[in-house]
Amino acid sequence: MQVLNAKMTPRQAGRSIRTSGMARLDAVVPAASWSGASTAGASLASRATPIPRMAPGIAPSRPQPNIVCRTATVDAPPAAGTSGGSSVREDIRNIAIIAHVDHGKTTLVDAMLKQSKVFRDNQNTAERIMDSNDLERERGITILAKNTAVRYRGIKVNIIDTPGHADFGGEVERVINMCDGVLLLVDSVEGPMPQTRFVLRKALELNKRVVVVVNKIDRPAARPEWVIDSTFELFMDLGASDELCEFPVVYASGVNGIAGMTPDGLAADLEPLFETIVKEIRPPTVAPEAPLQMLCANIDYDEHKGRIAIGRVTSGTIRRGQTISICSSLEPGKVRTAKIAELFVYDNFSRVPVEEVTAGDICALSGIADIKIGETITQRENPVPLPTIKVEDPTVSMTFKVNTSPFAGKEGKYVTSRNLKDRLDRELERNLALRVDPGETSDSFVVSGRGTLHLGILIENMRREGYEFEIGPPKVITREVNGKNCEPYEEAIVDVPENYVGAVVELFAQRKGEMVDLIPSIQGASRVKFRIATRGLLGLKNALLTATRGLGVMNTLFLEYAPVAGEILMRENGSLVAHETGQVTSYALESAQERGQLFVRPGDQVYEGQCVGVHAKAGDLKVNVCKTKQLTNMRAACRTGKADLYAVQVGLDEPRTMGLDDALEYINDDEQVEVTPKSVRIRKDPSAANKGRKGK
């Protein structure tokens, strides 16, 4: 039996509870032993209470002792590489907002901007102001990390809004070096999710101070105590230090712009959140008289100013018109010079031109046409580079190649292999998590990323810019570990109503997934956790939505490389393949729809080898969707332009709309996606057919 005493830190007490089957409370941990007003969890019970071992994340069915986490007052250590001439900039706080997708990061930033009087009272502002990209607004997610700044009582707070989806984790790794602390947003109902673990691990590795914000506290099913306990467990699982485990907590509703130090004591605005940021996030410790060093963490582009480098001045002072050196720790001895044309800082949701920026602040500068992310801007004499930015390796790859379909060149503006290579090279300059390698032929390129969504966003951006090309099926990247061929594995968490848990478990079992945990949730929903090969997740999203009637929600996180799971059946059904090139007719679809579900409608143009539907059985089937009924001249004249009317008369089924994401999930190894600015088509890969003939 383990005894908890008042001398234990919250992390030690938590570990004692987790590592013993029973625990007895010897004394209440005195609140006065820690400074700060924020509480991470409820107070310890004053009487002995048995604590059974439970699966992580399961809410207790009866009252159990929680651990008190309070803020410890710790002096800020001097910055690395600084000498006795260092000083603390009390006028600045640098923070990044990190969280799982849809936990309300961008919405909270909107509220912080509005309450900081950045906008006029009569100024019209859109929702999710920071999501300026068209794709971000359409999909409702943050894709690119962005900088802004607000002022609170004379203190400038630099804010970095980061993506929440696992596929864009490289954005988080890239910008988190610029901040001194992070706001970790956790949903008041869902609690810590897979991406919460990923972003928190990155913050803890860099010893960043963490302020936990329990967001969406106004939800009817909010359970803040369970969320705080689960977050505390996550800190311990990630090996956080005692100091970092004593995190302050703020309860907030970003959409309503309110916050408080307790769930029931919310203020009328975000004042408690701003107070906590200023109090808990350490001001930067800098050496303004030391040699200049600034790591380029992000790149923007302006039509008039050209390439703009964004980063935090680590030491020294940078001035407009100054001649500087650019170097990298990856290329020792290679130095080039440039001149700063313009210099900006972020202030009140805009870039403000300045003459100089001192260490500790985040700035943007122009004038360096060839600057790259990870390079260091230093003084001209004796340049010393900072460690470059490192991100985790890609796990999924696709082949980009020139379009060779019969409709090639009809809709796109950039269609050659040179256009394709130039565009991918430009993407590499900004997207650190991306890799581009030569393909099997001179007009193909193997593009690797964090997942199908990561690569899908790139493909969608390219087609909107006028590019036309073909995409091969997604494939996982294997590597050799201890002499064994290994592939990436991921943790998949599925939130699903109880009625469909069996269907979800069966679906994952078919793809060699292992159920790790089943957590009964609230309001009739359950949370099922799986360990599954990344290869098994390809094409699983649509199958999961079908099995759960659209009610299942899946989130994933990379775990490890492990031995290959063996053969996985990716798709049971074959494809309906067009027999000839021509225009789709209602007469032909009347018989073709009996063979499966179609992708095309009357009047569409198709070509031989194009996939026009899903076969109801295994194996592909060629169908003629262009055949016409033999008519006399009079009957043909009467039927001209009445294809839609005929389709209604014969009862044609509504075709399945295949967007880019759907097409990437659907294709098999012998298929590819044709992408143009106007169309997304699926076709059989001619090279795969030729290989099959040679094999025979």
Question: How would you describe what is shown here?
Answer:
Among the domains are: 87-283, 3-Layer(aba) Sandwich (Rossmann fold); 286-378, Beta Barrel (Elongation Factor Tu (Ef-tu), domain 3), CATH 2.40.30.10; 481-563, 2-Layer Sandwich (Alpha-Beta Plaits), CATH 3.30.70.240; 575-630 and 645-667, bipa protein (OB fold (Dihydrolipoamide Acetyltransferase, E2P)). The chain is 23% helix and 29% strand. It contains 18 helices and 39 strands. Strands 16-15-21-12-13-20-17-18 form an 8-stranded antiparallel sheet, with no helix packed on it. Strands 5-6-4-7-8-9-10 form a 7-stranded mixed sheet, with helices on both faces. It starts with a strand and ends with a helix. Mean pLDDT is 80; it is low at 1-12, 15-84, 636-641 and 692-696.
Per the CATH scheme, the topology name of the domain at 87-283 is Rossmann fold
Measure the end-to-end span.
70 Å
Low-confidence stretches: 1-12, 15-84, 636-641, 692-696
Q: What is the share of helical residues?
A: 10-25%
CATH architecture assignment name of the domain at 87-283: 3-Layer(aba) Sandwich
Strand order of the largest sheet: 16-15-21-12-13-20-17-18
Strand content: 25-35%
Count of DSSP strands: 39
CATH class of the domain at 87-283: Alpha Beta
CATH superfamily of the domain at 87-283: P-loop containing nucleotide triphosphate hydrolases
What would you call the shape? globular
Look at the structure and give the mean pLDDT: 80
The Cα radius of gyration reads 29 Å
Give the helix/strand class: alpha+beta
Number of helices: 18
Main sheet properties: 8 strands, antiparallel
